[in-house]
Amino acid sequence: MLGFLKEPVVVTAEINVNLVALTVMGLITRLWGLCYPRAVVFDEVYYGQFVSLYMKRIFFVDDSGPPFGHMLLALGGYLGGFDGNFLWNRIGAEYTMNVPVWSLRLLPALAGALCVPLAYQILVELHFSHRAALGAALLVLLENSLITQSRFMLLESILIFFILLAVLSYLKFYNLQRHRPFSGSWWFWLLLTGVACSCAVGVKYMGLFTYMLLLAIAGLHFWHMIGDQTLSNVSLLCHFVARALALILIPVVLYLSFFYVHLALLYRSGPHDQIMTSAFQASLEGGLARITQGQPLEVAYGSQITLRNVLGKPMQCWLHSHTNTYPIRYENGRGSSHQQQVTCYPFKDVNNWWIVKDPGMQQLVVSNPPRPVRHGHIVQLVHGITTRYLNTHDVAAPLSPHSQEVSCYIDYNISMPAQNLWRVEIVNRESDTDVWKTILSEVRFVHVNTSAVLKASGLIGASLPEWGYRQLEVVGEKLSKGYHQSMLWNVEEHRYGKSQEQKEREVELHSPTQMDISKNLSFMAKFTELQWKILTLKNEDTEHKYSSSALDWITMDTNIAYWLHPTSGAQIHLLGNVVTWASANAAALVYVCLSLWYLVRRRRRIYDIPEDSWQLWVSAGGVCGGGWAVNYLPFFLMEKTLFLYHYLPALTFQILLVPVVLQHLADHLCRSVLLKSMFSALIVAWFSSVYFVYCTFSPVTYGQPALSATELKGLRWKDSWNILIRKQ
């Protein structure tokens, strides 16, 4: 029974020494002196704020992309014991002792280091020689810009890591397809492709470019499979389902999970949640949730409410009125109704309170039992403090003459009767009998007499003059096609009115509510709102000293000063290896020219290279050249502030193309022994120059040692480079 113990248990393993050596060198170049400088470096001032908010569980919205990358940076802070207490207010600020600098920078550095062996393996899976793969890895290893970007609390190295991992995983899956479909390793690499793609998109939306490329390649490969007569219909269906599951369904689920974890971690109210809807804010701990806790859910006749405009642009605001009236005549000579002003006020105020009144009754209190207001009901809105009725009429609004003025009606005993009936339309209702709900219902108020819709003015950013206290304009929109968010309002604060007397009611308006109703949003509702805010929220793009255009990147006519020592000449710049960038451009140009030449010749039935070499050439171009194109060309269509680091994912793919072209030239153009020897010597000399440039610019890649003014001037190889030199 124990006979198997007669022989020793032997485990054998194959170790790729090249891969191990490259990984070690990648770790050394990225991790060496990682804590230096112990100061905020460039965009660390931006990402550090989000790390602190994660540590404190405070909700935020970042319009630059999804939350997965931010969570990875926060993980580094968590592992280092960071408490989130640091003021991220300026580049160059010295980190306090509670900031675990090494831990915060560790994950980007590890991701950058692992890009080196990934580059090696990608070339191997593309069926190029180990020498070509080693060359690709060494070019990535010695690329100064990739080193700089991976040594700080930034996201580009993490993005590039997941992009390369997705490409490698798909190539391994595709190579297994021919021999072992549906095997364990086949499933592993296919699923890892989908996971890596989702992670890349979750770090930055730039990852979507490579994801789309891989989907296109996978679609092309499956199209070729359809023509394979050896595969049955059932087998093709299984292949299709497997790819759809791994490359579409799993990435979508994983992407949703990033937001689920993000929202689970950030449950506290903060400064960013003000751009979210009232329902979203009420789901967060503190802030609005503290104010609205215990409010009645159903709005009834006699309810005291505040109405928040759903749009929230240019800022959140509430329907508001005060005792002041519109001027008899505006500065442009137009006249007004001289009625009480109604505005949208961006601060909480007692004058934001309104009472929902039944037009057929005089009482301003909630009956027992309450009579809820439903979709389609006619109401009057009475201003809580002045007791005047919300009104609109055929008088031009002060800033929007094409729209109607909205006011609180004052009876001047002239031929201008009150027009204060409004129909409640619940836009997000499930049925036509829905009850108007606090926080949850988005409502349009349609004026019964004129069919105008109550709207926060479309003049985004425009505010009333001094006579209107610079508050935002509210109008009656005559043409009300669709449901623009500026026409939608939701009840934010709500209580059941109990006091019929005005003085008692004013006291009541300042009092807290008593009832307890839960208003938690579902995850999908919160995800949908947050995702929409990320996609549509745009900060004002301002010209930055180091911003650049996409055309500047190819020839590296620009750089970015990341950090400058306050006293010495030590500094860190985002600058690439000039030889590598020039070689990558040359390789891309040679690839395009040779491809066109081969295509024309093949059209004439002239085959310069064997068919397997042609297929290898095309597949490498699809992955490396296609990766460069999809990660670079879209920037010409983007209206945003661009920086040199946006080019790094495209550059990485272009670098992979260099050894592809070199091996092709060596195999098919250098036919004699002499030519091969000369070509090898040129490659050695070329690679020596790559290493020389890496060493030359290392002081501004790592920030040490400090250079003198003369040495810094010697690094200004282009007049357009902004190398910082202190005046003596």
Automatic annotation (TrEMBL):
Membrane topology: Multi-pass membrane protein
Domain of life: Eukaryota
UniProt organism field: Tyrannus savana
Reaction it catalyzes: a di-trans,poly-cis-dolichyl beta-D-mannosyl phosphate + L-seryl-[protein] = 3-O-(alpha-D-mannosyl)-L-seryl-[protein] + a di-trans,poly-cis-dolichyl phosphate + H(+); a di-trans,poly-cis-dolichyl beta-D-mannosyl phosphate + L-threonyl-[protein] = 3-O-(alpha-D-mannosyl)-L-threonyl-[protein] + a di-trans,poly-cis-dolichyl phosphate + H(+)
InterPro entries, alphabetized: ArnT-like_N, MIR_dom_sf, MIR_motif, PMT-like, PMT_4TMC
PANTHER family: DOLICHYL-PHOSPHATE-MANNOSE--PROTEIN MANNOSYLTRANSFERASE (PTHR10050), PROTEIN O-MANNOSYL-TRANSFERASE 1 (PTHR10050:SF51)
Pathway: Protein modification; protein glycosylation
Transmembrane regions listed in the UniProt entry: 15-37, 58-79, 99-120, 154-174, 186-203, 209-226, 246-267, 578-600, 616-637, 643-662, 674-694
UniProt entry keywords in alphabetical sequence: Endoplasmic reticulum, Glycosyltransferase, Membrane, Repeat, Transferase, Transmembrane, Transmembrane helix
Chief site of localization: endoplasmic reticulum
Protein's UniProt name: Protein O-mannosyl-transferase 1
Lineage of producing organism: Eukaryota, Metazoa, Chordata, Craniata, Vertebrata
Protein EC: 2.4.1.109
GO MF terms held by the record: dolichyl-phosphate-mannose-protein mannosyltransferase activity
Ranges of residues in domain MIR: 296-359, 370-427
GO cellular component, one term: endoplasmic reticulum membrane
SMART domains from the UniProt entry: MIR
UniProt subcellular location: Endoplasmic reticulum membrane
